[in-house]
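We give the entry.
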Amino acid sequence: MPTWRKILGWVALPPVLAVGCAAAVLTFWGAAVRLDSLGLIVTLAAMTFASMAVMGTAIALPWLPSRTRILLLAVPSIFLAAWVGQQWFRPMGFDYLPAVEDPSIQYWQLPTGSRIAFRHREPSPGTLERRPYPVIFLHGGPGLPELPDAEVAAALSEAGFRVYGYHQFGAGLSSRAERPHLEYTVARHVGDLEAIRAQLGAERLILIGQSWGGALAANYAARFPERIEGLILTSPAPAWLPAFGVEAIRALGRLDADDQRALRDLVTPHIPRLGMRQRLAEINPTVADQWIGEREYAAFAQAQSRITAQTLACDPEAAADLVFPGQGGLVNRYVFADMERMEDSRPALKRVDAPVLLMRAECDYVDPAVIDDYAATFPRARIVEIDGAGHEILLERKDAYLRLVLEHLTAPVAEAAGEAALETGTAPESETAPVAEPLQAQNLDN
């Protein structure tokens, strides 16, 4: 073999490996379009690289024995595999804090396929008036599992209500989706809530929705207006997100510079893996959900929430230790994506004849226009401004929250149908009801 030919062969070796890498990449993406098994896709890509590299090396270095060529390929291939694994395949590695069972938790097995964890409280013994319709609390997120505050639930129980709170599908102790991109939808959550109503044997419901829970309550009311006895929406997300866009949710703007830096530092090392998942989701969501699965994504969401939780309060210290055991991850991603493409549910809300209380917090990060839009849409809505509270009103103004809930559910609504009223919350020590003033006509979430 002439010397010049050997020199040319060694010079050609890096391009040969580069061609093998390119062929593997093309195989990976081509297979991802057609196949639903990530393991099979990766295997095909690896086999493509190996076969191309072996054939190319045989052409470039024919004078070397086969065993020598294979050993020669092994070294760069190992380094390449280690680099690819580090960049794209290595799990993000965040610890996940699961929800914890307790004796008060019960379960519904719904016909929708969801297994839903819930807690309930019956009217207190000796209650003079037993209310006919149950109160159901709807938590935020999607995917931030909370059960009703014990003090609020006790007060409603004393007032004669059956009180229920549950972990929504995809969060807490409730079941997860087998096919997240198909099952985590607004319609599924609405269907679960209707199945719960049927399970309770209630003709009508009183819904109290926080943040995304407010949007869920509104979309349930749009689908089943005849099933609504009353609505309380606190810091609600938009019923129809395209009217405002994700810009309506301005939580990150409330982070100080140090926490914004901490959030960037948390996310930046995982951008290649997250970016790959996003690109896979555009062509084959089934494979994307295998690339970063339910638990890994939920742990990542929890890690972010530990930094962003302070945005839920006026005083960041009030939310400094707030955590959400059992937080869902993919349910948040897919439900919000569904909210961006669903049909406008607001015209149907005009058929809801029940009284609606809208609580707007002074430091809420949701665009105030969202609540104004609800007030202009529901025929019998009123807005109450809560001073000294953030997105999660209960954290700092439980007094005002509890008083307004009890007043709304146990006393006649002050405003006439079709007319919205604006009330302003008084100082925390005040126990007097706020004075109603006319609302100048005019519109999110964790």
